[in-house]
Sequence to fold (207 residues):
Amino acid sequence: MENLKDTVQITYPVMEAFYTIQGEGKYQGHAAYFIRLAGCDVGCVWCDVKESWEEEGHPILSVDEIVNEAKKYPGRLAVITGGEPCMHDLSPLTTALKEAGFHINIETSGAHELSGHIDWVCFSPKKFKAPLDEFYQKADELKVVIFHKSDFAWAEEHASKLGDDCLLYLQPEWGKSAKILPMIVDYVKDNPKWKISLQVHKYMDIP
Ligand SMILES: C[S@@+](CC[C@H](N)C(=O)[O-])C[C@H]1O[C@@H](n2cnc3c(N)ncnc32)[C@H](O)[C@@H]1O
Ligand SMILES: Nc1nc2[nH]cc(C(=O)O)c2c(=O)[nH]1
Ligand code: SF4
Ligand SMILES: [Mg+2]
Fold:
């Protein structure tokens, strides 16, 4: 009991947490509670949440506070994102979320070791900081952001290292969508093992 009591007092820098609809990947369309942990050292030039890079300046919340807030909503799907969430030890947070009955998904670049109990790993590797090898085994979905036509070949390199069951998604870089999306459409028609992931929350103008 002492252990659980200690665990729930551990803290994380939380940039924001919100109940919304998962806009990307396999769980697109599902209600989910997003926990955006601050801190990222990957530095993607087109990152859509650069305010998350600095760990400092964000609310520091205990596991207890994070999970109690999450439990206020009826959905029991939690998405841990960031920033780069794998920069944190996720064991205390995920233990408490599991105890509260959550299915836990993570959004990660794979640049740092995975910790804790995660039910679904969305692996989105970046050119700006190479992923760790462990993610080719652990990924449930590969989601490659396409910014330039050369990124298709780069996506295939990652796909070739994955297990057979991993789902494959190509997601247009939001700012270049008008130019890139037609290329992705053609690519997926020619290479049907891939699917398109759109950031549908941005089209719906929700968080
Ligand atoms: C903001 S990141 C946070 C999680 C983790 N750092 C990562 O990159 O996977 C969440 C998801 O958004 C994607 N993403 C970030 N900026 C984007 C953009 N401008 N257009 C499309 N997808 C983007 C990332 O590739 C990732 O799949
Ligand atoms: N609705 C919604 N879906 C998302 N899927 C991944 C997101 C992320 O920023 O990690 C995200 C996000 O920020 N909002
Ligand atoms: S790894 Fe994720 S949070 Fe970090 S800069 Fe890239 S897209 Fe943004
Ligand atoms: Mg986002």
